[in-house]
Amino acid sequence: MYRFIEFGQQVSNGDIDIGEFDQVFNKFQNIESVECEVRKLGISDSIAHTRMKQLMKYKELCLCATGAKVLLKVKQQYEIKGDFEALMNIATVRYDVLLLYEMSYEC
Fold first, then answer.
1. How far is it, in rounded angstroms, from Cα 85 to Cα 73?
2. CA 11 to CA 52: how far, in whole Å?
3. What is the superkingdom listed in this entry's lineage (predicted)?
């Protein structure tokens, strides 16, 4: 029971990394189900909504990183020349270790 309460407090104050947050809730099929479960932790509607926006942003970042990795493989395979520094940055950043409070609330 204590871990449940502690987890709820971490989600509420943003003191949990987004990767861990996603790992706990990734079994849910849609964002509305996740938001419902987050509210069961005793989290206010506004904070729950903010956390869902952050989760959606995180999932978009993961898709971008995956796309960047694919493009870098194509670059390597076909020996394409050019400045790929931006793609390398996107592909190598660990987004999963961002704490929720570090992520922008504006999406």
1. 14
2. 11
3. Eukaryota
